[in-house]
UniProtKB/TrEMBL annotation:
Transmembrane segments: none annotated. Residues 336-358 have a biased composition (Low complexity). Pfam families: OpcA_G6PD_assem, OpcA_G6PD_C. Residues 170-299 form the Glucose-6-phosphate dehydrogenase assembly protein OpcA C-terminal domain. It comes from Streptomyces dioscori. Residues 310-378 are annotated as: Disordered. Residues 51-166 form the Glucose-6-phosphate dehydrogenase assembly protein OpcA N-terminal domain. The gene is opcA. This is Glucose-6-phosphate dehydrogenase assembly protein OpcA. It comes from the Bacteria. InterPro entries: G6PDH_assembly_OpcA, OpcA_G6PD_C, OpcA_G6PD_N.
Length: 378
């Protein structure tokens, strides 16, 4: 069921929600959270589809905030709020309100969203595109316990990661981190099967892919070894090679679906490692609403090692790539393994390095923040 409202108010939208629930015979509210999606008209359909699919696992009230830009200067001074209320089959397992803000009201979206939040329910804010530099300091972001961004959608994804590290607050997360969850789980399980010490690591993936950078940071932070970043044709992450005292451990994926895991003294095995849809990534982030300390530790570790990224045309080693000979560029300069033994598992503890991010003067930099508690990747 759909109800269109033009030049409306938050009070009228709430009444339309009650009317819609009664019309379909479900007057009770059975949703577990409020999901606020901040997007634009171009990406609204894909973002809403992902949210509806995720609502099959997490019934929620979805508020889609679209800030419209008026063409004439006169219209920009006029405030108007249009809304589309969806309940029943049109809204997945929850209910959806699409808010289109015109004029000055677009600068005060939080005042429109606040009366529509479910009472006594957690709030998650997701920027599908154009995330603010400081999500926690954004007026809409301040409403949420969790703030989800997607650095992959940025024009400069790796630089976006640096901005995420400089402004990090507990509750922040990024879909680029969710994309590497299967890789982290597989690598941790592989290390649990062997009794050896990791000496060095090599991570291969697409150029300027934030998930590849995050995986390299996580491995360097957890194993406290030298990590090299290799450039491949993709798609996404393609290979992780762990050099250990017992022989190399390799996890290689060439087609974006199946991967090959090679362990010393064991036959190669095929493992499922497909690239997941946005709805699956979003559903994963909605499963936990507490701060992700492991993500914070990995992000802080690499914040001062992401500068000076060159394009593929400027790097001769990025021109060709074969699985047998990886062109590499160092991105992590950790202490010599001979001086500090590397841990034998991906969950080994390693202190997060100090970073020199220049954020809000009133907010402590990541280097000044208290150390985070290490957690197992599973």
């Amino acid at each position: 069921m759909k109800i269109d409202l033009t030049d409306t108010t938050a009070s009228k939208i709430n009444k339309a929600l009650v009317k819609g629930r009664r019309a379909i015979g479900t007057p009770a509210v059975g949703m577990v959270l409020t999901l606020v999606i901040v997007t634009d008209e171009e990406n609204a359909y894909d973002a809403l589809k992902a949210a509806n699919d995720a609502s099959l696992e997490h019934p929620s009230r979805t508020l889609v905030v679209i800030k419209r830009v008026s063409r004439s200067p006169r219209d920009r001074t006029k405030s108007r709020l249009d809304a589309e209320v969806r309940v029943g089959a049109d809204a997945g397992t929850g209910e959806t309100v699409i808010l289109r803000l015109y004029g000055e009201v677009s600068d005060h979206a939080q005042s429109v969203v606040l009366p529509l939040l479910l009472p006594d329910a957690p709030v998650v804010v997701w920027w599908s595109v154009d995330a603010p530099r400081d999500p926690a300091g954004d007026p809409l972001g301040a409403l949420g316990q969790r703030r989800v961004t997607d650095s992959y959608a940025a024009e400069k994804p790796v630089e976006e990661l640096k901005a995420r590290a400089e402004s990090y607050e507990p509750g922040d997360t990024d879909l680029a981190w969710a994309r590497i969850t299967p890789w982290r789980s597989m690598l941790a399980a592989a290390l649990d099967q062997v009794d050896c010490e990791v000496v060095s690591v090599e991570v291969a993936g697409e150029e300027a892919n934030p998930s590849v950078e995050l995986l390299a940071m996580w491995l360097a932070d957890r194993l406290h070894v030298h990590v090299r970043r290799a450039v491949s044709a993709g798609p996404g992450l393609t290979q992780v090679r762990l050099e250990t005292t017992g022989g190399p451990i390799t996890l290689h994926r060439s087609d974006g679906a199946m991967a090959t895991l090679a362990l010393p003294g064991q036959p190669d095995r095929a493992v499922a490692l497909k690239r997941r849809e946005t709805s699956e990534l979003l559903a994963e982030e909605l499963r936990r609403l507490d701060p992700d300390d492991t993500y914070a530790s990995a992000l802080r570790f690499g914040v001062d090692r992401l500068g000076g990224i060159q394009s593929a045309s400027q790097r001769p080693e990025a021109a060709t790539w074969t699985p047998g000979e990886l062109p590499v560029r160092p991105v992590h300069d950790t202490p010599d393994p001979a001086a500090k033994p590397a841990g034998a598992s991906a969950s080994a503890s390693a202190p997060a390095s100090a970073s020199a991010g220049e954020g809000d003067p009133g907010r402590p930099t990541p280097a000044q923040m208290p150390p985070v508690k290490k957690a197992d990747p599973q």
